[in-house]
Design a protein that fits this description.
By secondary structure, this protein is of the alpha/beta class. It is built from 29 helices and 38 strands. The chain folds into six domains: 132 residues, NAD(P)-binding Rossmann-like Domain (Rossmann fold), CATH 3.40.50.720; 145 residues, 3-Layer(aba) Sandwich (Rossmann fold); 163 residues, Rossmann fold (3-Layer(aba) Sandwich), CATH 3.40.50.261; 182 residues, D-amino Acid Aminotransferase, Chain A, domain 1 (2-Layer Sandwich), CATH 3.30.470; 75 residues, 2-Layer Sandwich (Dna Ligase, domain 1), CATH 3.30.1490; 169 residues, Gcn5-related N-acetyltransferase (GNAT) (Aminopeptidase), CATH 3.40.630.30. Helix 13 runs antiparallel to helix 14. The chain starts with 6 loop residues before the first helix and ends with a strand.
Amino acid sequence: MGRHYLEHLFTPRSIAVFGASPLAEAVGGRVYENLLNGGFAGPVHAINPKYQAIGEKPCYASLDELNERVDLAIIATPAATTPAIIRSCGEHQIKAAIVLSAGFGELEGAGKALEHTLLEEAHRSRVRLLGPNCLGLMRTSIGMNATFSNNVAKPGSLALVSQSGAICTAILDWASAHEVGFSTMVSVGDAADVSFGDILDYLSMDPETRSILMYIEGVRDARRFMSGLRAAARLKPVIVIKAGRHAEGSRAAMSHTGSLVGSDDVFDAALERAGVVRADTIEQLFAAAQLLSNPHRIGGNRLAIITNAGGPGVMATDRAVEQGIKLAELSPDTRTKLDAVLPKTWSHNNPVDILGDATPERYQAAVEACLADDQIDGLLVMLTPQAMTAPTEAAKAVIKADNPEGKPVLACWLGETQVRKGRETFARHHVPSFINPESALEAFGFLAAYRRNQELLMQAPGPLAELEPPDIEGAKLIIEGALAENRTLLSALETRALLRAFSIPMLPAMTAHSPNEALAAAEYLGFPVALKILSPDITHKSDVGGVRLNVGRAQAVRHVYSEMLEHVRELRPEARLEGVSVEKMYRGGSGRELLVGVIDDPVFGPVVSFGAGGVTVEILQDRAVALPPLNDYIARSMIRQTHISRLLEKFRNLPPADLDAIVHVLLRVSEMVCELPQIKEMDINPLTVDESGAWALDARIVVQYQPPGRHPYDHMAIHPYPSHLVTHWQMPDGVDVTIRPIRPEDAEMERDFVRRLSPEAKYFRFMETLHELSREMLIRFTQLDYSRELAFIAVVKKDNQELEVGVARYFSNPDGESGEIALVVADDWQSKGIGTRLMTCVIDAAREKNFHTLQGEVLANNVKMLHLMSKLGFTQSKKIDEPGVVVVTKPL
């Protein structure tokens, strides 16, 4: 893993400002002054043909006149001049530029055309662009304030990434007053080139950054966004605020699912799968900033509240319940400790009311007792200024309290004048402090949500090995047949066939085109039956009386058939009526009606929905959504989020529903949308479930044309586990070897594998002395985004457990057309063909991704590896600045 491709943007050694000016009111003048005054150690050059000097500094007409190495260009000139400037940057080997200028993609017509020209020039010149139309970038560790803002970030460990420059300045202004520091502030502007995904990818490995805040207005590339977000959230807390939560009319959907699921639901689901949490307001983002700038992390959702007044304690309790925060149960040992230090009249429960005459010493003793309790995950300490209260001294006592486990402590000093110094004391010592209990509990809720979503992030759904393999080819042929007839709504028969191809249970049914056919079908299936209208023009059959249930007698079938068609014709005379579907009635007495659906979100692709079903589905609005692929954990988490999940348990005379059957359907639907990108909408409504199973009693599928040439999972925001790349091989001595893509659950096996390597093998692989993988490296190596990186491990069975004996991987470069490779084989398994097999898998997978080139770096004295690379067709050349390193390259 070499230097990051955004290194020149975030840690430049020299900077050139195009449009620098002596005028303080000019954008170029402001950014040039900020750079000079910010403490940046490297040279800052002014480029502007209008001036020969700015103050005592020379000003150059162009880069040709400057004739010095520059890492970063900052452009504050009219929009029309920027493509030529970028061309000049490329000619002078400048790798990164910040375009502050406006007048591009935010404007229609000429502005968008100019942005397109700018991007083309940047790609041709190999210059990465931040912006245009952005505030700029701050990096406090190197004193770089490359913005035209009046605000200056204090040094810290929090990164701020925002689509809005105004939000950046507001947060910086607030942070200054609250002693919150930043490692980085990035305003992405129009994000025409460098996007959220790129920035998150850099910040995830940035040692200066411990936590990340984001303000988002829209996402251009969902796959890149999710990739960067998941990479960052695996290593550091990330919290997001998004504008435009209610996008009315964002989707003209005809299905139940489409009418239920809005773009904001999908965005929430994306954040959950990425392991991050979301704030709804700027105030909540500020609250989150206080916690994220603090190194304490939450271990659970159990909160204890300490207060010197009963009323605020009750208010905090009410809000905690509304937030889904669990009030901790005090352990007997904690109660004993509190009895020893508190008056006899203390509350003896949580909230811990230490009474209105509480001294600082009483606060400290109560805080220490609660923090030592294993049943408490976090603490909210509250104070109201009363006659005998010493707010500032009490704050100092809370700060002084022993907290060996590093549990989060939140302070809420209610009031204003008397408690101001106490709040300032908390701010100086980086203890999160809030003016009301509601804000404090919202902030604690963020920490709890972060921990919960981290569990979702760790899920990497693998192949559904235990399930019957689906008939993917047959399903594709059915869809292609419908599209060939210019139909997007599948017929009832096609829909049933598609569900059957993925083993989703349905009750028997037959199509009838006349009253007599309906009667014959009913006699064949057995009474009672249901009759449902068949029409490509009617979405919701019940709305037009197109469903008749429990038809129990032969004499009634023909009458019901004719009456139903006549009734539908009166209500919908323009609709094409093709007959009815005669279906076996569900006879169970304990069935619950559910809905499982799919929509194709314009940004994030397919989304799976689960919730209450039936004809009142839009009114109940009870659903949970998730981005596929799903696994057992994610499916059960979706079920738990809904209100109807309580009805799935044993309820009065109803036995518990078969949850495994529901999970089976969710997994199969997930598999469908992964393998069939043509699915645009799907409703299974109702999915009826009882104690013996689940059946899709009605379903509707809408498909869409997919252009040729796309990769199998390009339609998805999260790339599924590539199970088709698993191979098996037997060595000449009879040992069976499995080569498969690595999974997150392989982390311990990967750690042990590296531990077993000899010092020489470790040095050859990592080019440094390394004893074992750090937590960050382990996460980076096992929790992959399969769309841009892949690691194959070779495993053998030993004592009925898998043993890793080799690993090879590639990392996709930013151009998306080349990759960097790495390979290591356990010392006692070398020279047995494992390295060749692993590298062959890497090469084949890279070809599948349409890579043009693979490249790697090998130490010159690693003779075995160089020999293997030559055998595999890699050319060799010495690295210019490191003669001890050989660069191996293979065109694909």
